[in-house]
Design a protein that fits this description.
Rossmann fold, single chain, globular, 3 domains
């Protein structure tokens, strides 16, 4: 008896039960039962040929919707191409549902084409794995496995969300047309984080005793209620709030330009207590600053997961950020009086003034390009930042008028930023702007080779002729053949790629061209637009070094 259809229906309905509405599908034959089943439901299917790109597009959709998103692929190495996106989703806490078609177990390792051992291939980067049997012969079998599938999928949206993988062996014929045979089991309740979090007496006393409390916000979703709570704490004298752009918190309540502020920091501002919200801090300088402080570290996470980022972890506190901050706000009047918050704000003001002075006369470079991009940003756009130098340049500017800010900082790879932006723009009606480097764009150009590209997508490629990050970080330039083996120096442009994909191409090779073209670049159009901005790789690193020196000393140096 062939039960492909019943198995596919079981998985489809379980996906619907956990709130799934979007599935990214890559073509194949072994996955035909799944595709057929999902087509019959109120689910949006997004076809993407390249599985690596498909994984990141699904990631973008999941980030934009805050809902689980499915991935369907055929058997064999197709599945392995999801790996970078699955790892990214794991470290970001994004619920991706991998549904991989497979051959029956007796076919594995028998020299049969398009067949590998697919069980637990994401073992280090998944919340759950489930191997389904090739046949569901009875109603009892069906109900048992229905519950197991629900259990597995529910793990993706639990308080510690992330990817899950279900492997489905399908026998031929793959295009079976028999009618539904078994009745689905009742829905299982989805786990949620309880709302009754309380601070222990010891935690309360530590908060009240600290004269120097540093709240550091890493990667978080947009949340007005969380911003309001941070606002209430922003004027507490003993509390300083630092937030990276990936935290998506209001510009008015925090110090956002951490790296430049730390150029002026003094030892007396080292914290006694550090509280981290969200995940994956970008700034290496703040990590070093805290690591070298005599302090305690509390990490707040819905799952209570340990994040000993600074080697100072004292407590992993299981709570939503809002739940925890609400309890801190209730203690607001009992917290210490000190000059800690004002001292940070005063330094931030000095750094901001020096930043403006330097930018006003900055040579044409990556830094001046980012300044102009940020000055001309349309209000309420969604930003997807590339990794490496791109996201670090963004961190040097405050009060950026974005609606949301995202970057694949779970694993910090360059391999899927374009695809993630494509997925995100599918969901959001507002403008989605990807700012990426040349190597990142080159690597993930396949993300634009599909029919999912929306007119609200804008891409700016900062082409500095190679991996600019390797001129910024210490070490690589001391190695022989640095430009070949680290920087990946090149003289390519991307006009051919962009136009062949049917997208609107723009180019700027100097500051004036950039200024003249940016405003119209954001205007509405019938197709997505890409702007390639060439910058001088020979001086980009020197300009940045002089920038930080000016922040620190207030003295200009000439760029060679």
């Amino acid at each position: 008896m062939n039960t492909n259809k019943q198995t596919a229906i079981l998985v489809t309905h379980a996906f619907l039960e956990i709130g799934g509405k979007h599935v990214v599908v890559s073509p194949g034959s072994r996955n035909a039962p799944l595709i057929t089943s999902f087509q019959k439901e109120n689910i949006e299917l997004h076809p993407v040929v390249d599985e690596r790109s498909a994984g990141f597009i699904a990631l973008g959709v999941a980030i934009a919707t805050s809902e689980p998103v499915g991935l369907i692929c055929t058997s064999g190495t197709a599945l392995l191409n999801y790996s970078p996106a699955i790892a990214e989703a794991y470290y970001l806490g994004v619920p991706l549902i991998v549904l991989s078609a497979d051959r029956p177990e007796e076919s594995i390792n028998q020299g049969i084409g398009q067949t590998i051992d697919q069980q637990n291939v994401f073992s280090n980067f998944q919340k759950s794995f489930l191997q389904l049997p090739k046949q569901l012969l009875t109603q009892k079998d069906f109900k048992k496995w229905n519950q197991k599938v629900l259990d597995c999928l529910s793990n993706s949206i639990d308080k510690d969300s992330g990817p899950v993988h279900i492997n489905l062996p399908f026998e031929e014929p793959l295009y079976d047309t028999e009618k539904e045979k078994y009745k689905l089991a009742d829905r299982k309740a989805i786990l949620t984080v309880p709302n009754n979090f309380l601070l222990s007496s010891e935690q309360q006393e530590k908060l009240k005793a600290s004269q120097k409390t540093l709240i550091l916000c890493g990667m978080l979703k947009e949340d007005a209620a969380l911003s309001e709570l941070l606002q209430k704490l922003s004027n507490v004298p003993s509390v300083s709030i630092l937030a990276e752009h990936t935290s998506n918190q209001s510009a008015a309540i925090s110090i956002q330009t951490i790296d430049r502020v730390l150029e002026l920091i003094q030892d007396d501002l080292k914290p006694q207590l550090v509280i981290t919200l969200g995940e994956n801090i970008i700034s290496k300088k703040i990590k070093s600053f805290i690591s070298n402080s005599d302090c305690s570290h509390w990490h707040i996470s819905p799952s209570g997961v340990s994040r000993n980022t600074f080697g100072k972890l004292e407590q992993s506190i299981e709570a939503e950020a809002k739940q925890f901050l609400q309890r801190v706000v209730e203690l607001k009047s009992k917290l210490q009086k000190s000059t800690y918050s004002n001292n940070w704000k005063n330094i931030d003001s000095i750094a901001e003034e020096r930043h403006k002075q330097f930018i006003s006369s900055c040579a044409y470079s990556d830094l001046s390009v980012f300044s102009k991009i940020i000055q001309t940003l349309p209000f309420n756009c969604h930003i997807q930042s590339g990794n490496s130098s791109v996201v670090r340049y963004f961190q040097l500017f405050k009060n950026i008028p974005f609606k949301s800010f995202h970057a694949n900082r779970g694993t910090s790879g360059i391999d899927g930023s374009t695809s993630t932006a494509v997925g995100f723009s599918l969901i959001k009606s507002e403008l989605t702007l990807l700012v990426t480097g040349d190597l990142s764009f080159m690597y993930d150009s396949n993300g634009l080779w599909n029919n999912l590209i929306t007119p609200n997508l804008r891409i700016i490629i900062v082409n500095n002729g190679g991996g600019g990050i390797f001129r910024i970080i210490p070490g690589p330039q001391t190695v022989k053949n640095f430009e070949t083996y680290f920087e990946g120096k090149h003289s390519m442009n991307f006009k051919g790629i962009v136009t062949n994909l049917g997208l609107e191409y723009h180019a700027a090779e100097n500051y004036d061209e950039l200024v003249n073209k940016l405003d119209s670049f954001y205007e509405l159009s019938s197709v997505a637009k890409v702007m390639e901005v060439k910058t001088p790789h020979e001086i980009n690193d020197e300009v940045l070094k002089h920038y930080f020196n000016f922040i620190k000393t207030g003295k200009h140096e000439e760029v060679a």
